[in-house]
Amino acid sequence: MDFDFAFAWSILPDLLPGLLVTLEVVVAGFVLATLLGMLVAVLLQLQSPIISAVCQAYVTFFRNTPLLVQLYFLFFALPLSGLALPAMATGVVGMGLYYGAYIAEAFRGAINGVPQGQWDAARALDFPPLTRWTRIILPQAFKPMLPVLGNYLIGMFKETPLLAVITIPELFQAAKQIAGLTYRYNEPYTLMALLFLLISLPTSLLFSYLERRRAHV
């Protein structure tokens, strides 16, 4: 089947609402994943057996089970226990929990990479724990995390087609509906790929720029 540029142009407005939904879920999920990953990484530094066990269980479970299964559980199984979330909220929470586990491990490695002298100096100056973390440790740990966070953000964009299984009308779902109605598949799926590229490439360039800028600070 030949590619019809006129048809592709005509269906582009129908894909844009799905693109907007994709952006909303990914941005909200990425913020949740970053905050959750940072929190878990900090909690693991407290060396409390109970807290460490809970954090390790969370990381192990979400890193070693498929995101698709987790989304199914959150959307279809969890309501059986009385806790039901809207589809969009389920997508955000599912993406946040899944990627938060990966970001937590990355943050833990970055925190452990902060020179011991920085920890000793913070303690010697008797900084409160909150100030020590927010003003000294985390800013230094965040610097090597930029490329990692950029990769995970792009990865989240590429995982969003899985959200179609929980009825979220994201970009893939929109392309699938157009293909099903028109029996033309080249145009909607090609446009979908181009729109994903249009998001991922600037995101990658932005994080590369931020990384270079941080390297000169």
Automatic annotation (TrEMBL):
Keyword Zinc belongs to the record: no
GO cellular component: ATP-binding cassette (ABC) transporter complex
Organism: Yersinia enterocolitica
Residues of the ABC transmembrane type-1 domain: 19-207
GO MF, one annotated term: transmembrane transporter activity
Gene Ontology BP terms: amino acid transport
Transmembrane spans: 20-46, 67-89, 189-210
Protein name as it appears in the record: Amino-acid ABC transporter permease
UniProt KW keywords: Amino-acid transport, Cell inner membrane, Cell membrane, Membrane, Transmembrane, Transmembrane helix, Transport
SUPFAM superfamilies per record: MetI-like
Gene: yecS_2
Keyword Phosphoprotein found: no
Lineage: Bacteria, Pseudomonadati, Pseudomonadota, Gammaproteobacteria, Enterobacterales
Subcellular location: Cell inner membrane; Cell membrane
Family stated for the protein in its record: Belongs to the binding-protein-dependent transport system permease family. HisMQ subfamily.
Membrane topology annotation: Multi-pass membrane protein
NCBIfam families, alphabetized: ectoine_ehuD (TIGR03003), HEQRo_perm_3TM (TIGR01726)
Domain of life the protein comes from: Bacteria
Gene3D superfamilies, A to Z: MetI-like
